[in-house]
């Protein structure tokens, strides 16, 4: 990382404790002094090393500061422990660190887990006003907001609110456990402390590395006082004025086993102009998704700096009138094949609207660049066109390499390119078979092979969408080759989903029915004369036009499918109906397969 | 200008005048639009402006669409076309559509604009130019109207847009306009003037006998060469929540066709960009 990967350590005194502070990205050069300072605060049971991967990524652009919370890592613990971890004292520590590392300018604050709980305290307390420019919260609610959240649901119970209370109540089991005296300390210093690294690696799928640090049993034992000193008091008597005085970015992992996503439902009340981000991952984002976190932090810090910083009112460009798609896909890199028309193009536009960066791939250069151009107009921070025939293995390899070097690893891959082929089996020539399998199946195989490899190597998850078709499970005498190719895509997606699940990569197969795109205008009809070919094309186009199911709706369903990591997404009523029928009464479908299409 | 059946050559001036009047009305109201105004405010302002200048009857009353209603997002039933209480906001696109009748001449125009900069909308407006050229070229080639309709569709798909004129009644891209007798009392039904509806119905009856339709639609009833007369042509592009259209009169003769007037806001705008590009 340009020599910035090396941290400098120093000690800062706060009251009766000494805090160990590490700084990245300062080499004493003149321009370094102008860099924004980003302070990363760790959670429980952790030490500042939890942030090391993120800090290294941020060090290129920012002055990055980590510190061990009192009683953790190499910072000293207060004496006595009881009462020494109150949020007021933690605020003293933060101010001491901020004054030491950035005496003249306010800092950007990022917190994970208990670091975020503290961060909320810092970002809402009166005496820190003017010391914080922005706050990024990862997996840690404000105890005050949490208290109000519980009170509101207890006072006005509805079935949904009661379910939310019970859900979070069950997730908080460890909080109750930590309130028992002595036992947690004994467990952490004994078997739990020894087993923890292995348990964490297995449950969270952490990449191998020097984390957790050997100080873990000590950190965890001391950190129990974070809960005992604060939780009961704050939840029972939450502050009424816990409004954020800096812009806030909230990053929520959707698979967090400890915190319900519902906790943040009322947050806009406390943090005006809140920017929300979601990521499909578990609790330890700084270890499992360092790249994504670093990108979002960079983006938010830069936007706040550009907006002048330090204003309480949300600056333009900071708030997203987001919606779930923008929260999830904002800033991500999305590659769509067959993006020059139809479903591919609509998908590229839908992702662009959500703020994703787009690589639009099509064999037609003109339409691909048109897609990229319009994607930029829709708000994609970047959009590029690539002219590639997906059935060309070498071209696809070149594409994968080029995309990685120029734009990075793809977060969402949409293998959408496909061609239509109609005609009975006996009429279909081997050449036609080859062509349809080359594009519809091999195109998907190449895409999955090359880009899934990159996603796995990066180790930060991702998603693959393959466009299959309702024809994948709907037999028909008119579409043997097309249906075969799409059935293969569907099965490939299911197998791949099983294989890639352990890497946090989701796979979705989208199965549209009759959608009004130009696939009918470019489809081949086997075993007919050229003139008949034209007639069938225009006739089928006309029928599809009368059906008039827009590709935009397929794109919407596709994004939704990625959002909830669905395995199979049938789109259009006929596709859903056929899927149901294929399960309930396959014989009925087989009987229908014998009918000639009305062409 | 021989052979414009049913339209005297000097009558073209009358149509041109009322078309200019309608565009002047749209431009005047567009200039008054402010954030917070509703579609109904805009429609009322157009009506008052036109009535002050002598308009007594309407082919249809003024429509105004703001924001994603310019692309007819979520339109299911025809009543949704009527002006609503949707308020205009900064950056929002809008469309003003009115069809006044003045001294017996009908115009039907559509004016697209937006309140403040909106790059998507600018792009849509610029891309409408290809459609104006395509329609005129293919009408001159005397292709079947249904075929032209499909070619416009294809051009839209290639541009990356969706066809929003399909949402109009009968999915028309154009309809015939004609002279209307001026009556002292001119009621309207569902926003459409009864005199004009009567004219359309008469045309439809004639056309049905002779094999053509006064409505230029995607259906088989439009599978005929361009019928001489005056057609109000209104290609309407939609792109995810933003819509843009123009609407103006195309004069079709037995063997030729031309746009009635080139002194219109959208045409002038294209000419200015040309000049800007040349300079």
From TrEMBL, chain A:
Keyword Oxidoreductase: yes
InterPro entries reported in the protein's UniProt record: AB_hydrolase_1 (IPR000073), AB_hydrolase_fold (IPR029058), KR_dom (IPR057326), NAD(P)-bd_dom_sf (IPR036291), Sc_DH/Rdtase_CS (IPR020904), SDR_fam (IPR002347)
Alphabetized UniProt keyword annotations: Oxidoreductase
Residues annotated as domain Ketoreductase: 332-513
Pfam family, one: adh_short
Keyword Transcription regulation recorded: no
Family of this protein: Belongs to the short-chain dehydrogenases/reductases (SDR) family.
Protein name: SDR family oxidoreductase
Originating organism: Streptomyces humicola
Lineage per the UniProt record: Bacteria, Bacillati, Actinomycetota, Actinomycetes, Kitasatosporales
Automatic annotation (TrEMBL), chain B:
Domain Peptidase M24: 15-254
Lineage top rank: taxon: Bacteria
InterPro entries xref list: Creatinase/aminopeptidase-like, Pept_M24, Peptidase_M24B
CDD domains: APP_MetAP (cd01066)
SUPFAM superfamilies the UniProt entry points to: Creatinase/aminopeptidase
Name the UniProt record assigns to this protein: M24 family metallopeptidase
Natural source organism: Streptomyces humicola
């Amino acid at each position: 990382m340009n020599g910035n990967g090396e941290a400098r350590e120093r000690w800062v005194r706060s009251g009766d404790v000494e805090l160990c502070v590490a700084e990245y990205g300062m080499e004493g050069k003149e321009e370094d002094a102008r860099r924004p300072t980003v302070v990363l605060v760790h959670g429980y049971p952790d030490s500042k090393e939890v942030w090391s991967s993120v800090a290294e990524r941020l060090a290129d652009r920012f002055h990055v500061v980590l510190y061990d919370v009192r009683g953790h890592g190499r910072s000293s613990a207060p004496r006595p422990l009881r009462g020494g971890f109150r949020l007021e004292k933690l605020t003293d520590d933060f101010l001491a660190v901020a004054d030491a590392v950035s005496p003249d300018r306010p800092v950007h604050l990022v917190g994970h887990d208990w670091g975020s709980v503290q961060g909320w305290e810092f970002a809402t307390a009166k005496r820190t006003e003017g010391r914080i420019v922005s706050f990024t919260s990862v997996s840690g609610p404000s105890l005050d907001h949490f208290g109000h959240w519980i009170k509101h649901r207890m006072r006005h119970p509805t079935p949904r609110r009661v379910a939310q209370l019970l859900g979070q109540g069950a997730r908080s089991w460890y909080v109750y456990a930590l309130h028992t005296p002595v036992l947690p300390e004994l467990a952490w210093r004994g078997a739990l402390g020894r087993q923890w690294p292995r348990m964490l690696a297995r449950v969270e799928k952490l990449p191998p590395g020097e984390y957790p640090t050997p100080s873990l049993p000590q950190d965890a034992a001391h950190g129990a006082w974070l809960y005992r000193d604060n939780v009961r008091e704050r939840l029972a008597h939450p502050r009424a004025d816990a409004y954020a005085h800096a812009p806030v970015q909230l990053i929520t992992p959707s698979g967090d086993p400890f915190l319900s996503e519902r906790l943040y439902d009322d947050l806009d009340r406390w943090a005006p102009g809140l920017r929300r981000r979601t990521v499909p991952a578990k609790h330890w984002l700084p270890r499992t998704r360092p790249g994504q976190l670093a990108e979002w932090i960079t983006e938010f810090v830069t936007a706040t700096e550009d907006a002048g910083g330090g204003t309480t009112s949300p600056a333009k460009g900071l708030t997203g009138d987001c919606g779930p798609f923008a929260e999830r896909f904002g800033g991500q890199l999305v590659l769509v094949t067959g993006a020059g028309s139809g479903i591919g193009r609509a998908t590229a536009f839908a992702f662009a609207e959500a703020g994703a960066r787009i690589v639009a791939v099509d064999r037609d250069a003109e339409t691909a660049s048109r897609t990229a151009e319009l994607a930029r107009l829709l708000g994609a921070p970047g959009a590029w066109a690539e002219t590639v025939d997906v059935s060309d293995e070498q071209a696809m390899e070149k594409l994968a390499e080029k995309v990685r070097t120029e734009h990075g690893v793809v977060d969402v891959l949409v293998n959408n390119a496909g061609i239509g082929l109609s005609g009975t089996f006996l009429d279909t020539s081997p050449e036609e078979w080859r062509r349809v399998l080359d594009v519809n199946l091999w195109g998907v195989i190449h895409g999955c092979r090359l880009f899934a490899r990159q996603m796995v190597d990066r180790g930060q998850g991702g998603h693959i969408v393959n466009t299959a078709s309702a024809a994948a499970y709907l037999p028909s005498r008119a579409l043997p080759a097309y249906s075969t190719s799409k059935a293969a895509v569907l099965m490939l997606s299911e197998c791949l989903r099983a294989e890639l699940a352990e890497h946090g990569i989701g796979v979705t197969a989208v199965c549209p029915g009759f959608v009004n795109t130009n696939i009918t205008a470019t489809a081949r009809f086997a075993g007919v004369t050229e003139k008949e070919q034209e007639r069938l094309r225009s006739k089928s186009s006309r029928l599809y036009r009368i059906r008039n199911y827009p590709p935009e709706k397929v794109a919407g369903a596709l994004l939704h499918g990625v959002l909830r990591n669905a395995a199979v997404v049938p789109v259009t009523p006929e596709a859903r109906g056929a899927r149901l029928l294929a399960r309930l009464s396959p014989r009925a479908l087989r009987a229908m397969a014998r009918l000639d299409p009305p062409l | 200008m021989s052979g414009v059946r049913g339209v005297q050559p000097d009558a073209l001036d009358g149509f041109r005048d009322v078309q200019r009047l309608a565009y002047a009305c749209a431009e005047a109201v567009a200039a008054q639009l402010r954030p917070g105004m509703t579609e109904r405010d805009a429609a009322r302002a157009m009506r008052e402006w036109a009535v002050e200048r002598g308009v007594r009857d309407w082919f249809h009353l003024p429509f105004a669409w703001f924001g994603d209603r310019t692309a007819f997002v979520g339109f299911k039933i025809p009543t949704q076309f009527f002006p609503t209480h949707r308020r205009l906001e900064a950056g929002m696109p809008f469309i003003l559509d009115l069809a006044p009748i003045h001294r017996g001449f009908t115009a039907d125009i559509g004016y697209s604009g937006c309140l403040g900069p909106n790059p998507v909308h600018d792009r849509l407006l610029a891309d409408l130019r290809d459609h104006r050229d395509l329609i005129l070229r293919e009408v001159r080639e005397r292709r079947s109207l249904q075929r032209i309709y499909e070619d416009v569709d294809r051009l839209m798909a290639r541009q990356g847009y969706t066809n929003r004129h399909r949402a109009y009644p009968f999915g028309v891209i154009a309809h015939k306009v004609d002279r209307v007798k001026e009556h002292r009392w001119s009621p309207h039904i569902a926003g459409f003037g009864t005199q004009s509806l009567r004219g359309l119905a008469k045309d439809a009856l004639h056309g049905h006998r002779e094999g053509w339709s006064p409505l230029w639609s995607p259906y088989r009833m439009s599978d005929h060469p361009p019928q001489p007369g005056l057609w109000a042509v209104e290609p309407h592009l939609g792109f995810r929540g933003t819509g843009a259209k123009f609407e103006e009169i195309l004069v079709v003769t037995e063997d030729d066709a031309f746009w009635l007037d080139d002194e219109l806001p959208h045409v002038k705008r294209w000419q200015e960009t040309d000049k800007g590009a040349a300079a």
